[in-house]
Design a protein that fits this description.
Elements lengths: L8 H7 L7 H24 L3 E5 L5 E6 L2 H13 L3 H6 L3 H13 L4 H17 L2 H11 L9 E4 L9 H4 L3 E5 L2 E12 L5 E8 L10 E6 L10 E5 L10 E13 L6 H37 L1 E2 L2 E2 L4 H31 L8 H32 L10 H11 L6 H15 L1 H8 L6 H15 L3 H6 L1 H17 L4
Helix pairs in contact: 2-3, 2-5, 5-6, 5-9, 6-7, 6-9, 9-10, 9-11, 9-12, 10-11, 10-17, 11-12, 11-13, 11-14, 11-17
Amino acid sequence: MRFDVFDSPVQFLEQEGISADHDWLRQYQLWFQNEGQAISDAVDRAGTPWLRMFDRWGTRVDEILYPPEYWRMLRQGYRSGVLWRVVEQNSLIPAYLLLYVTGFHDPGLACPYTVSLSTLSPLSKYGDPERKAQFLPRMLERDDNVWQGATWMTEIKGGSDLGAAVETVAQPDGNQWRLTGDKYFASNAGAELAVVAARPEGAPQNVRGLSLFLVPRRRGDGQLNYCIRRLKDKIATRSVPTGEVELRQSEAWLLGRAEYGIYLILEALNLSRVANSVGAVALAQRAITDAYSFATQRTAFGKPIVQHPLLHRQFEHRCQQLRAASRLAWEAVYLLDEVWQEKPPYSDRYHLFRLVAHLAKYWTAEFAVETAKWAMEVYGGVGTLYEYRVERWLREAMILAIWEGTSHRQMLDGLEVIERKNGHRLLLQHLRGNASDSALRAMEARVDRQLGLDEIEREGTLEDLFDDLASFTANALLNRQG
């Protein structure tokens, strides 16, 4: 096992068969090595930024006050093309490559880029011509004037059961809508444009009654269109401001057909779930990198601790798991890149993507947490100290396991794809040639047995099957050549 590639995200991706050897990506990685990582560390140490709610005249401004270096770090990714390259190349791959390198250095910073991407996509797919002409050019700027996006779905009752939890109401107002409600976990608070889940007046009180709306930061008259009640204190991801957002008769535009809102919401979430998977693998790579650097220099019982057989074997095992996790995450990326411009009703290929995305989000997030914890153990006592960064990767990883749906949510959504769309058969057919026929038949039979259980038992015993299906998929993809 080659350990020399693990300190370079681009080199690792290339070793794993991901085409990442681009000058612009290497320059972005080099910027982080030379400048960005120090800024990231300082932002993490500083904690939650300050919200300046009013100017000196008492006018509401809701300005988030980071140090100037933060904004330089944030804008680096936008200038490098996390948004504009997607449109220029008609592909999501450049965005996820940049997200991987970002996640290696600062997992929290990948969030603004991700939710901006999850705003750009529905706007370009479902926005009316006037809205696209108004907003798309601002999001595709290649300099510091670029607009950021945000995806605001979650309210105080939580995000898993959107049908019951979303209480934000949308009222028609000519060719516009007015939204009133509160978003409790609003990542990238302060964004110039957000896609927001709301329920039109009179719509059913379930997920079918939800619609997706486009909400700019400022109204047509230049006044604030939403207010930030406060910013959240989080254990990590300090590079993305998360707040409570108040919508009060906020100007909005409907995206797509009102009755298709839940599909549009899930499309945005799927973009983020794949990004979460990519970021989890990048974080795990970073944790292994830092642990290996420490283990080659720390001496115990007369030799570097990495030379002790048990720890050396653990490194080999972690690296093999990292390769499998990487294959699973990037399979989700490539499948998404095939289907991301589909509109409902979706193809079988889209439902295959959905299952792979749930498996990847679940498995890579859990792997990132386990690997970050293990890296702290390699460091020993100093691994628990705030000043040596390795503890940060565990804090960051814990959030990756929750963002965009917990592991429980991924299992239940994955089960839905299996039950309603025969997702397991689509997946196993997709893996044919990467696993033996007998192994594929055995896994199909196991899933079928699970489906044959009564409803309570089927869900209650799901975890072992889902974990094994994710592991099976990852390792089968690891066998794929090229």
